[in-house]
Amino acid sequence: MTTIWSRDAVAAIAHRPIPEVPHIAAQSMAPVLPGHDLWDYWPVQERDGRTAEIAGGALQMLLSAPVLPDPESRHGLARIRLMHETPHGWRDLGDLLPDGFAPGSREWSGSAIVTPQHDRVTLYFTAAGHRGEAEPSFDQRLFETSATLSIADGVPRLADWSVPVESVAADGQIYSRDMTGGGAIGTIKAFRDPAWFCDPADGAEYLVFAASLAQSSSPWNGAIGVARGGGGQWTLEPPLITADGVNNELERPHLVHSDQRYYCFWSTQRKVFADGGPSGPTGLYGMVAEHLAGPWTPLNGTGLVCGNPPDAPIQAYSWLVLGDLSVISFVDRPGLTGDPVDVAEARRAFGGTPAAPFRIVLDGNRASLA
């Protein structure tokens, strides 16, 4: 049962107080990996959604790129970085996958789970473009691969990755295969960001992902797609949530089970709402359901969980709600009230490092900051 994120729900945002993401002062977050920009990130998780404790900390996978004059160029060079976050700080463990191993020209966001024995990790990720292409394309494919997990002298290690297998492909009927969109940031289409989830009701496995509707007549045709696992393969199902005619990108969607309910969260930006229609701030959004198949109800009546403050509308992005309801994200451009005027300003303003986590509280169809 597909649920529509409606124009009316989005329009109601303008008439209600907006819970604000905690303010991030410009230059207040020191880079955890100097010389590299870091953004979308996720921890290795247990099958029940809890962050796995590994060697006294969390294994974190982060998109990374060398610091470039224009931080927007990072998307064309993105690799997944492995880091170990402990109470003592962050330890860099290098590129997650070997050079030339991934099927794409870039590695984009995903998720990862560990076996109950903590001896193997499976990565679900987006292969952007194609290996060896002369110019980066916008093609996006979902792949999975697994590696052995070992610990030596307190340092985790992932090795002997299996050959990447395409999890599931866009069908061109429900989910668009054409990723071009218009080529500009915020207009490209989606088949990316796979997030693994195990339904506690029956143990069924799912992948949810950012998608675009194939049969839409609108350039704003974002959706949260889903595939169900079974028999060693994934089968595409109709989207959980669509924003046809409302929003182009429901990014990094993920599921959290809390208090016998299902919560679906995603991130989006003000600039990807439909021209001439209602919009919300760049922020964390979500819906709740009694069953994974829906129907889904927008949290707080609108879908908005929390947004960047009005005086810092692009300070952070790519929020991920963890099993304990803590929320992680990355520092984008704190200190700016709009898009940078030039590349030099963009570089000065860009944080490119993990933001301080915060927590949310869920109460049925209400969500608030703790």
TrEMBL record:
It holds the Pfam family Glyco_hydro_68. Transmembrane segments: none annotated. InterPro entries: Glyco_hydro_68, Glyco_hydro_beta-prop_sf. Belongs to the glycosyl hydrolase 68 family. This is Glycoside hydrolase family 68 protein. The lineage of its organism: Bacteria, Pseudomonadati, Pseudomonadota, Alphaproteobacteria, Sphingomonadales.
